[in-house]
Design goal:
Elements (H helix, E strand, L loop, with lengths): L2 E4 L1 H8 L4 E3 L3 E3 L8 E5 L5 E7 L5 E7 L7 H13 L10 E6 L8 E6 L2 E6 L2 H5 L1 H12 L3 E6 L12 E7 L5 E5 L2 E5 L14 H10 L3 E5 L5 H7 L4 E6 L2 H13 L5 E5 L2 H11 L3 E6 L11 H18 E11 L6 H14 L4 E7 L18 E7 L2
Parallel strand pairs: 1-4, 9-10, 14-15, 14-17, 15-16, 17-18
Antiparallel strand pairs: 1-3, 2-6, 4-5, 5-6, 7-8, 8-9, 10-11, 12-13, 18-20, 19-20
Helix pairs in contact: 2-4, 5-6, 8-9, 9-10
Length: about 375
């Protein structure tokens, strides 16, 4: 196993609990092979840990352990099973969840999602890509799935010099099939859908929204209707809006699957639709804002903030007194403090008083590791308009 020497700054970062060392903190990596597991030492030759090495990404080292234990097939098996075991309480309510959440489960750059009898795998670094066949073998051995799909068509792999792939790597997966989440049925297509087939990270937030929603509801950026269908059972009527014709078609299909007759889906640009509704004097009792990530990087934060403030301002104006706002940001670069601040600004500009009902994050099968702030990306705020 090759040894890499890192700066004191890099070593201290790991000793504080983070799992990454950046390329700028590497002093010597001449003999290390791309994607290999390496021993990492500081400038005093003190042991720091064992990590996956990337020779192209700015995240050059992703740490697996800070001990000198043997990292072999059994090590990977135990880590994967430990992560899956932590999801035990979820299985009674849903047959779709995330089994492994990369750094959040101490398995950097590895994502494993389960959709009923189909497992979807993402190997997001050179290191996990190198052992992909082993990972597939272990997943088949431990979970006995009908099929394993790799959804390795995400942008982060380009930083690793890896090709973009979406393919079945074990068994035969149907093009689409049904999953159930908290009593609601959805059609998913893991080989072609967004992310690995569904937005699993919002599942618990949809339940929270369902608990406080009422009256006439509006679901913005509805995608395939997940929030809208959760609201349908407790609201008089629901309107779902999305700019994608394909998403709207899928949402209507999901509504039919659940016999949700009080839901209407419209193809529209949310920004335009909110302005038009305000002009028309429309009002709602519940509004959900679940947009895609507006801030893809630090450079886009200012523009993203304008977008988030705009939709929140329009939504707050459209709510009746006592109305509920469910507003989300899945942009890691948009901090919770920034997000809460712009919601407050939007309420002030709308001349409405907004009361916080609850602050939420991503679902519990996407665990946040305190020492790795990058694992905390989804912010969800439930608020009430008082007057």
């Amino acid at each position: 196993m090759n040894t890499i020497i890192v700066t004191k700054r890099g070593a201290d970062r790991i000793r504080r609990g983070h799992l990454w060392i950046y390329r700028s903190d590497i002093l010597n990596a001449e003999e290390a092979e791309s994607g290999s597991i390496v021993i990492v030492r500081d400038q005093g030759r003190n042991f720091v840990g064992q990590a996956l090495f990337s020779d192209t990404s700015q995240i050059a080292l992703r740490f697996l352990t800070q001990t000198e234990e043997t990292i072999d097939r059994d090590w990977w098996r135990k880590r994967i099973l430990a992560a899956a075991a932590r999801r035990g309480s979820l299985t009674s309510d849903t047959n779709a969840c995330r089994l492994v959440y990369s750094e959040g489960d101490l398995l950097p750059s590895l994502i494993v999602d389960r959709y009923d009898d189909v497992i979807v795998l993402q190997t997001l670094s050179q290191g996990t890509e190198n052992i992909k066949s082993l990972l597939v073998e272990l997943l088949v051995e431990q979970f006995r799935p009908l099929a394993v799909i790799e959804r390795n068509d995400v942008r982060v792999r380009q930083h690793e010099g890896l090709e973009m792939i979406a393919a079945t790597v074990y068994g035969q997966a149907p093009g689409e099939f049904e999953i159930v989440q908290d009593g609601i049925r959805f059609v998913v297509a893991p080989l072609s859908g967004q992310k690995t087939g569904s937005f699993l990270d919002q599942r618990e937030n949809r339940l929270a929204a369902r608990a406080v929603a009422h009256g006439r509801a509006l679901d913005c950026f509805t995608f395939t209707g997940a929030f809208a269908l959760n609201l349908a059972g407790v609201c008089d009527s629901v309107v779902g809006i999305d700019i994608s014709a394909e998403a709207i078609q899928a949402a209507r299909r999901n509504a039919e699957l659940n016999n949700a007759t009080n839901v209407e889906f419209r193809e529209a640009n949310v920004f335009d639709a909110l302005r038009e509704m305000e002009t028309a004097g429309e009002r709602f009792d519940t509004i959900v804002l679940d947009p895609p990530a507006f801030a893809k990087n630090r450079a886009s934060i200012k523009a993203a903030a304008r977008g988030y403030k705009e939709i929140n301002l329009r939504a707050i104006k459209l709510l009746n007194p006592g109305g509920i706002l469910v507003t989300c940001s899945c942009s890691y670069h948009m901090s919770e403090q920034m997000f809460l601040g712009l919601i407050a600004e939007a309420a002030n500009d709308a001349h409405r008083r907004l009361q916080l009902v609850e602050k939420r994050t991503q679902a519990s099968d996407h665990p946040i590791l305190f020492a790795v702030p990058e694992t905390y990306y989804l912010k969800c705020v439930l608020a009430r308009v008082l007057d």
